[in-house]
Amino acid sequence: MKRFHVHLHVNDLTHSIAFYSKLFAAEPARVERDYAKWMLEDPRLNFAISTRGGAAGVDHLGIQVDEAAELVDLKDRAEAADLALLDEGQTTCCYARSDKHWITDPQGVPWEHFHTLSNVPVFGKPALAKAAAAACCAPAAAVPAAASAPSAKACC
């Protein structure tokens, strides 16, 4: 089964946690000093916010899968459609270890397809800490699909 994923950059984590907790009538499933995540069932949504990155607003969208085979299906679909794809494989980001790949829509909005494997105690890979300060998760905007795949930014 799949779950829609939205990641927003926010300016004030505490204020945003209070707002989204009221909006969703639920407390976050995970809260860190720079990050919070809700795993909602109705609607089936992985909604994350963080203070990592640039201006407040949408960082990226995605689809989280429950099974590795679903991730393979999403990757096959993207490749069959000749979409520029960045395959990160197994990586650490957003306090989780995941297997993932990215595509970017024509407007430059990054889409993450991922299968979460486990929780981890750090936001991302230490080697990526400098890049993470610039942008948390999403890869740089892809050039048109006929060109090469997007380059990776920091993490998740």
Summarize this structure as a short list of keywords or feature phrases:
alpha+beta; 2,3-Dihydroxybiphenyl 1,2-Dioxygenase, domain 1; 8 strands
Q: Whole-number radius of gyration?
A: 15 Å
**CATH homologous superfamily classification:** 2,3-Dihydroxybiphenyl 1,2-Dioxygenase, domain 1
How much helix, percentage-wise, in residues?
A: 10-25%
**Through-space gap between termini:** 20 Å
Average pLDDT, to the nearest integer?
A: 80
Structural class: alpha+beta
Across the major sheet, the strand order is 2-3-4-1-5-8-7-6
Largest sheet: 8 strands, mixed
CATH class: Alpha Beta
Named CATH topology? 2,3-Dihydroxybiphenyl 1,2-Dioxygenase, domain 1
- Parts with pLDDT < 50 across at least 5 consecutive residues: 126-136, 141-155
Secondary-structure element order, N to C: EHEEEEHEEEH
**What is the CATH architecture annotation?**
Roll
Protein model, in words:
The protein is of the alpha+beta class and 156 residues long. 20% of the residues lie in helices and 40% in strands. It is built from three helices and eight strands, in the order E-H-E-E-E-E-H-E-E-E-H. The protein has an eight-stranded mixed beta sheet with strand order 2-3-4-1-5-8-7-6, with helices on one face. The two termini are 20 Å apart.
